[in-house]
Amino acid sequence: MTSSPAPAAAPATAVPAARRATSISARLLVLAATGVAGVVVVGLIGLQGLDRQGTAQTALVRADRAAALAETVDARQAKLRGDVVVPLVTDDVKQRAAAIAALGADATQLRDALRQLEGSSTGSTRQQTTQLLAQTEQLVTLAQRVVSLANLQVTDPQQVAARKALPAFTTQADAVSGAVPALREAASAARQAALDEAAGARSAALWQTAIAALLAAAVLAGVSLTLRRSLRRRLQATVGLLREVADGRLDRRGDVGAQDEVGQMVSSLNTALDHLSRLMSQVARASDDMAASARDLTQVSGSLESRAGTSAAQAAAGSAASEEISVTIRSVADSSGEMSRAIEQIAAATEEASTVAADAVRAAEAATRTVAGLAQSSAEIGDIVRVITSIAEQTNLLALNATIEAARAGEYGKGFAVVATEVKELATESARTSEGIVAKVAAAQQDATAASAAITQISDVVDRISALQATIASAVEEQTATTREMVRNIDEIANGSVDVTRTISAMASEADLATGDAGTAAATAQRVASAAASLETELKKFTV
Length: 544
Prior knowledge:
By secondary structure, the protein is mainly alpha-helical. It is built from eight helices and no strands. It has helices at 24-89, 93-120, 123-150, 160-246, 261-348, 353-409, 414-467, 472-539. The chain is rod-shaped. The termini are close together. GO terms for molecular function: transmembrane signaling receptor activity. InterPro entries: Chemotax_Me-accpt_rcpt, HAMP_dom, MCPsignal_dom. It comes from Quadrisphaera setariae. One of its GO terms (cellular component) is membrane.
């Protein structure tokens, strides 16, 4: 892993007030507010146009109604004329009665139509309608007078009075009929004006709505493009930074710029890169430490394996020496048996006392040398056991050091920690076994001392036999008992030497196992070293 002297772009820790732009969410809110304002303006313009169209439509409806009422007035005044003429031209009573009834209904409808027209009219049209309504009242009065005079058949069977009143009615009817076309024209003009107003309002609303929509779209597009350019430039820079980080350039940093969401993201990315750089540096140092620990562990494992092999060789030598001691003790036992038989022969033949005594002296000297050799062998076994104990303590110490190194290695040292623990347990077991051997060797030395003392007593007895033949019988009896005790002690020594042999053999087996464990520890150290090398290779891909 390489390190750069300085990052390409240092993160901005303090942003000037002029660069502290609003956040992206605020700018998006402004963009949305601009769009909403544009929609509201367009809507208000549209509503204004709709209001004008509604007013024009109302005027159009009023004009259509005025035209319809004008037609109704024209039709009813014409019908009123017919109702007046019928009583003058027929003598049928029923027809006259029907005409009189129709006259009242038509007069009422004519008045209602004119009143409705007056209520829906404005300006000059309303004045014309008011004048026409007054003329219609006069017309109805004249019509009723003509009809009433026409029904005076008893006093005026020729209807002279009615015919005299008819011209005035006709003149008034012509006046009313002549005023109706003016109402029609006024209604038609009002209708056309309403149509023109509606068309103008619709056209104006369309133009105003289109212009407002274009202006709102232009403002919205300008704000959007400004926001897009500012965000795109900074996001592209952030993407470029991330690509360099993906290529292992952990020394790169982004320009925070404005304190908006993108700036906060870049600041957080810079902080994360700082932490990651420190972490990779720590990992690199840990990798170096792990490699060094692996090398130390390899050396310790080699030393442990060498010392374990030495322990195994010494244990094998101790086992061979113990077997030799066993053979020697058996020889001493056989010699003791022969000496016992010699004493019995002395009891049977006192004349051979001197010869047998001399033989006994020589046998005692041989036994003394043998016991001395046994004591020396026991001392050598004790030295060997002390060496084994020292090796076990060193092995235990090395296992403890290996456990500490494995703990420092972390996850890669777990397997080696298990092996180190097993080696430590084997070393502890070897120490306990050595302590047992020391105890047994001490017992063997005590037995050898006792045997040496017994042999010394035998020498004294033989000397006394040589000096005092008279006391041979009692001396032989005493020597027989002493010889039996010596044989028993020698048997015990022989059995103890067998146990020592077994113990040393077991210790040799444990030393072999320790050698194998040391080899396993060395292999584990090699794997840890390989893992550390692989980790270092991967770390070199990053630049901090």
